[in-house]
Design a protein that fits this description.
The structure is a single chain. It is elongated, with a radius of gyration of 23 Å. The protein has 8 helices and 20 strands. It folds into 2 domains: 207 residues, Immunoglobulin-like, CATH 2.60.40; 197 residues, Flavodoxin domain (Rossmann fold, 3-Layer(aba) Sandwich). Strands 4, 6, 7, 8, 11 and 14 form a 6-stranded antiparallel β-sheet that branches. The longest helix is centred in the C-terminal third of the chain and has 20 residues. By secondary structure, the protein is an alpha/beta fold. Helices cover 20% and strands 31% of the residues.
């Protein structure tokens, strides 16, 4: 069993004698191993019993350790082998519109008895392009609390982000006894048919170590955009079902990844982020001048002590939910001191008991700029209606897009750039 600090991104799976909680990249395959930000998981498979295991990774180990490991990558000296088996997944496009590649290193539990407290991993990822330069990545896996008395294996999962291209990966892992396990493989990050012109957030032949604990998303440089678009984002973090207290972890992970896919566009600057919960009838997080979105602060805000609670006075008003939606849209889409070039609303499908009266929204005036609604759903066959989507029909020209796969987000972003550019020219 793997125990981590509870997070919106944590997923729980139990299969026989296996329990794991891991962070994931959200890709076109809804629950493929690997996530958004950075993936780090330690899967403990116990044949006889289950025990608690804690995994922590220091994303930036002692530089001397990195240099030692880099030297070992190039060395041909004989070394004592560490028993392990490594597999690598094919790079997959995520909702953050970049490719994710992860590896799985399986180590027998019996090999941990004298391995020390950490496994040190180093990688060299080199683009196969003509002027490709190697990128070095290093991190550690904490194995101090793995119950070494049990039979079975542990699986270490990690990875990195890529732009389109072909790459060579050299990988090495060592323990405190200087035993090593090494592997080498080639991979290709390639968009499928009809996806080549999607607006990706990493350029060709780029390699990035996506830090899991980084509080802000490391955006791409904006130098290429002569006049980047100012975008305001409204993020719907409402639970899909009334009986749920907070948004489901898999939905939150997808929504945050979509937010990264928007914010990572070289042609976009995010001016404001507003996260709200329809069932709590409140704004849970707001960030102005959000060129570097603080995802960690946003996650903490959604997990505060008051999450899942609602003011009792609101319960006495049967129209309180529709009043909140009406006020939210009229305030955030109406006239403001600094008008953005576009407003993007991101959220999963949520259905409230009562529909928002569109006449009330129309009476408050039109939106100050184009409105784009990115309606994420992991199941496009869900039968219930969507409150936000229905309310936005009151705004002339508001465009709605169903986001099921990363390609859908890429097409929506391409349409956003096109529509805003035409509006600016006219």
């Amino acid at each position: 069993m793997l125990l981590k600090t509870p997070s919106l991104f944590d997923e729980h799976f139990q299969l026989g004698a296996v329990m794991m909680i891991r962070r994931r990249w959200l890709t076109g395959i809804p629950f493929r191993s690997g996530f958004a930000a950075k993936v780090l998981a330690l899967l403990v498979v116990l044949a006889a019993s289950m025990a608690a295991v804690e995994s922590r990774s220091r994303r930036q180990p002692d530089p001397r350790l990195q240099y030692d490991d880099m030297a070992k990558l190039a060395s041909r000296d004989p070394r004592e082998k560490l028993s392990c088996e490594l597999t690598s997944n094919k790079p997959a496009l995520g909702f953050d519109l970049r490719f994710h590649s992860d590896y799985h290193a399986t180590v027998p539990v019996r090999a941990l008895a004298d391995a020390g407290e950490w496994f040190q991993v180093a990688m060299r990822v080199t683009s196969r392009s003509e002027n490709g330069q190697p990128v070095y990545l290093a991190n550690r896996f904490d194995i101090r609390k793995v119950p070494v008395g049990n039979k079975g294996d542990i699986e270490l999962v990690d990875g990195f982000d890529l732009g389109p291209g072909t790459y060579r990966v050299d990988w090495i892992m060592r323990d405190a006894r200087e035993r090593v396990c090494s592997a080498h493989w080639d991979l290709e990050a390639k968009a499928g048919s009809g996806k080549q012109d999607l607006p990706l957030t990493l350029g060709p032949n780029q390699v990035v170590d996506a830090e899991m604990n980084d509080s802000s998303y490391r955006l791409q440089p904006k130098e290429d955009a002569a006049q980047p678009l100012q975008i305001k984002i409204l993020l719907n973090l409402s639970p899909a079902k009334p009986q749920e207290s907070i948004v489901r972890p898999e939905d939150a992970a997808a929504l945050f990844a979509i937010l990264r896919g928007i914010a990572g566009q070289p042609g976009i600057v995010v001016s404001t982020v507003v996260a709200f919960n329809l069932r709590e009838e409140k704004i849970v997080y707001r960030q102005e001048n959000a060129e570097r979105i603080d995802f960690l602060a946003m996650e903490k805000a959604t997990q505060s002590r008051t999450s899942g609670t609602i003011d009792i006075s609101l319960l006495r008003d049967p129209q309180s939910e529709t009043h909140f939606v009406t006020g939210l849209l009229t305030d955030e889409l109406g006239a403001q001191a600094n008008s953005p070039d576009a407003i993007v609303i991101v959220g999963a499908k949520v259905s409230l008991e009562r529909n928002v009266p569109r006449n009330s929204l129309k009476a408050m005036g039109s939106a100050i700029c184009p409105v784009f609604y990115l309606n994420y759903t992991s199941n496009p066959l869900e039968p219930w209606p969507d409150t936000i989507g229905s309310a936005l029909k009151a705004y002339k020209g508001a465009a709605a897009y169903n986001i099921v796969f990363p390609r859908d987000l890429g097409l929506a972003m391409r349409e956003l750039f096109s529509r805003v550019a035409k509006r600016s020219n006219s």
